[in-house]
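Reviewers of the previous submission asked for a worked example of the structure-prediction workflow described in the proposal, so we include one complete record here. The input consisted solely of the amino acid sequence. No template or homolog information was supplied to the procedure at any stage.
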Amino acid sequence: MSDSSLLDTPNNKLQTKVTQWQLVLLAISFLTRIPVALRFNVTNIHLNQASRYFALVGLLLGGLLALSYCVFQLLLPPSLSVLLMMAFGLLLTGAFHEDGWVDVWDGFGGGWQVEQKLTIMKDSRLGTYGAAALFIILLIKFQSLVLLSTSLTAIITAILLGQCLSRVIATSLIMSMDYVSEDATSKVKPIAMYLSFNSLAILTLTAVILLLSLIFLNIIVWQTAVIIIAVLLILRSVLVRWFKHQLGGYTGDCLGAAQQLSEVIIYLTLVGLL
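From that input alone, the workflow returned the following structure tokens.
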């Protein structure tokens, strides 16, 4: 984050003025495979600004996944509907976050020094740690959602919260750590490297509106919302300590892993509250 050209500062905003709707489209384009028309030259500055809408994109994904489940369960049993919905989700995102989860476990599990870990994380090949971690987290997602599928309201709520709040936690980590630079030979993916307080406010507000809406509609009680928030804040603290201990900061893969773990923790929390 030392490069001031990447900062979401007022001067940079003046130099690279785009509308908020364009930033929403950029966030959709960055996090999903949904085709959108970006009628401007995208820079790192724009991506930094678009990060404020990552939770909104998560809500969009949650809505699409919930809709797909509702369609599938009209013809198929819940377990198959959940499995097809998960497959649809991988298609929508291009397994973007799952790739980060795999790389983190391969790197942290197979490397001793920071340089070794980063080298392994850059490798496109799938290692034993990553393969095992991917299998486990997908299985936990599947089993959790199957348990929640006993109620259509419960599973839709879980999907919306999981997709939205997990991206709030992952994106917010940008404010708490330094980005770990990788050299030009890496398979570096574009990444937001700065999160302004205004962007954090919009990111958080999206999650708050979702939670308050669910409470207002009597879909969840306020105690459930408080428990989920508390669990996620604890998880966030653990993730910051873990990434700092392993790398001294974060990479794009770390944010992907944070999203995956946050999503699963939300599902497990709701299962525990059933």
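Residues 55 and 167 are 5 Å apart (CA to CA). We consider this example representative of the routine output the project will generate in years two and three.
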